[in-house]
Amino acid sequence: MIILKSNHEIKLIEKACRIAAETLEMLKELIRPGVKTKELEEYAEAFIKARGGTPAFKGYRGYPASICVSINNQVVHGIPSDRLIKEGDIVSIDLGVVYEGYYGDAARSYAAGRLGELQKRLLEVTEKALYKGIEKARPGNRVGDISAAIQDYVESNGFSVVRAFVGHGVGRFLHEEPQVPNFGRPGKGPRLKEGMTLAIEPMVNTGSPDVILLEDGWTAVTADGGYSAHFEHTVVITKNGAEILTKFN
Fold this sequence. Notes:
Layout: H1 7-28, H2 37-50, E1 54-55, E2 67-71, E3 74-76, E4 89-99, E5 102-112, H3 117-135, H4 143-156, E6 160-161, E7 167-169, E8 176-180, E9 197-200, E10 203-205, E11 211-213, E12 220-222, E13 228-230, E14 233-238, E15 241-244
Antiparallel strand pairs: 1-4, 2-4, 3-12, 4-5, 6-10, 7-8, 7-9, 9-14, 10-13, 11-12, 14-15
Helix pairs in contact: 1-2, 3-4
């Protein structure tokens, strides 16, 4: 069932999303060579709690941390650890926040130091693909219009979209209907309506779209060892289109 949100609910979701966005912006200043990924976890959890939120991921289906930190060929759900960030790494952070029972979800990929041209283009294309999808999040359109816009842009730039993980509704729960794939055909899927809140989140690989799950049961990596990037916004569908609730700045 797709849940349409009231104005009151949207305000609470917006607050959760603002905390998520502020956390990602704060982490931007910390991501550099020599930092351990568990340090990012510690700063993020403290930051979220100081602003009245609760990390949404910690304990969710047994996940052991407050944020996901995925590096280079890690697509998503990387668990923070003693791993050191190195010069030239792509560092993707995915996090969720609960505020007074309502959820916001966001992700962003960062450059640690100087990236190579392929990695830089991957980040640019993935972020732009997110906005291509958001442009289609309008009343009367369908989920497939979002999906197709993302896929078309990514593939026209020589990259691939991950099929194993998709976007989703968000708000009263961390994961709600509908699913929002990053691939598909325009005109297909549920129709978009005012009051829908969606997490749109392209995950893009430099090579194959296939992923492998590591033994920790969480971390997904590219099957061919290629690089991956991840950007995500929570949006609300309004009469004028999508309003981004997790603006990064």
